[in-house]
Amino acid sequence: MSVPCVRVPPEEGETTRAMLADRNLVRDDYDITVADGWLYIPVTDADAIAHHEVVSFDAPRRETQTLPEDILGFEPSLERLGRIVILDEDDDERARRVADAVMDSSLPVDTVVNRASEIRGELRVREWDVLAGDGTETVHTEYGTELLLDIAEVYFSPRLATERHRVIEQVTPDEQVFDMFAGVGPFAVPMAARGAAVVACDLNPRAVEYLRENAARNGVEADLTAVEGDVREVAADWDGWADRVVMNLPHTASEFLDTAVALAGDECVLHLYNIQHDSDPFGPGERAIREAAGEAYAVDIETRRVVRSYAPHEENVCLDARLRRR
């Protein structure tokens, strides 16, 4: 039977599936299928798909796969990261029921965890209750890039994959890019794969270890320099160097704008991520960029984008700002 499907290259399949699943748009009664060099993901509402091609495809009905909801009798809320399933359950007994169902299902899963704390500290990590399996390290594939990480030791959000891809696609082979808060490399590694020279910095020593491993895993170690430390203290070696600066530390990135401007060459694009009130989601960031640029640079805000809702009346937003030296 022909059903609406998102059609993507196979290497983008898991990232796209996770994004659609996060919005409850994946149909569970039809199989995800590879045909003629494309991956077809059946979706529940074609009109809700804004950034991917939707086609009619004769997808086979799912007959043999057992999903957690088939076992539980209800559909649990879960997030997949590589071969880890992440739960956010307040009730311990319910969490263990869901974990057992996930492990008994047909999902390709090694570990099920439940969030045990909020994100904490300068390194932005959280505690986890491991409900099934015995490890918190996994390989996550995002638009063809393999990222090894341990969710107990580094911060990572698969929900930002589409936004990262939007920025990465802007990079050209002759660019010099500085990623100020690089983590395990979800911006930096694919940017280097596009041929850019990338310097990637992070305060978390374990994140930097994974960053170097991921550069090697994806064959871009020659184009990526990983630096451990506070970017305000290590960036002086690259003053005036960058054609592009990524600032993905939404709660406090604006505090680092002086450093970002010092990194900028004669022309540079800043990608500034903020958490702002929905009454004025872009104004504070714009004002902060212009204040940091001062008289040295003309500032053109090229993109104002709401990435996702963060909390009631709070938005995670991105400003793409082009700086041109006066």
From TrEMBL:
Molecular function terms from GO: tRNA methyltransferase activity
CDD domains: AdoMet_MTases
InterPro entries, sorted: MeTrfase_TRM5/TYW2, SAM-dependent_MTases_sf, TRM5-TYW2-like_MTfase, TRM5/TYW2-like_N, Trm5a/b_N
Example GO biological process: tRNA N1-guanine methylation
UniProt entry keywords in alphabetical sequence: Cytoplasm, Methyltransferase, S-adenosyl-L-methionine, Transferase, tRNA processing
Keyword Transmembrane listed: no
SUPFAM superfamilies per UniProt: S-adenosyl-L-methionine-dependent methyltransferases
GO cellular component: cytoplasm
SAM-dependent methyltransferase TRM5/TYW2-type domain mapped to chain residues: 78-325
Name of one Pfam family that matches: Trm5_N
PANTHER family: TRNA (GUANINE(37)-N1)-METHYLTRANSFERASE, TRNA METHYLTRANSFERASE
Protein name: Methyltransferase domain-containing protein
Organism of this sequence: Halosegnis rubeus
